[in-house]
Amino acid sequence: MTPWFNTPERIAALQATAKAWDGTPFMPNACLRGHGVSCQKLAAGIYVDAGFFPAGTTVPDGPMDWSRAHKQSLIDKFLSTDP
Fold first, then answer.
1. Could you give the CA distance from residue 66 to residue 73 in angstroms, rounded to a whole number?
2. Neighbours of 59 (CB within 10 A)
């Protein structure tokens, strides 16, 4: 599988997008840049803003204690499901 972020333009878009989310406070199951975001939705928000996912892609909400009982991250779980 060829990595999607494999061109200078895509890498620059990823870096600029990640920087734009910098400073967004944590808020459970939120995904609003500059206002609040959860961990799994931060990854999805960056991927959407950088063009990896189509606009409108949403990541399901997740329980805040997920990492205590599961070894798989919520974003890995989302990426591995069929649409």
1. 8
2. 22
The string of DSSP codes covering 17-73 is HHHHHTTPPB-TT-EETTTEE-HHHHHHHHHHHTTSS-TT--PPP--TTHHHH-SS-
Q: Tens of pLDDT along 23-73?
A: 999 999 999 999 999 988 898 899 889 998 888 887 888 888 877 887 887
pTM value > 0.90 = no
- Let me know: does 36 contact 49? Beta carbons within 8 Å: no
> What distance in Å separates the CA atoms of residue 25 and residue 9, rounded to the nearest whole number?
28
H or E segment to which residue 13 belongs? helix 8-21
Beta-sheet pairing, 36-37 with 31-32? antiparallel
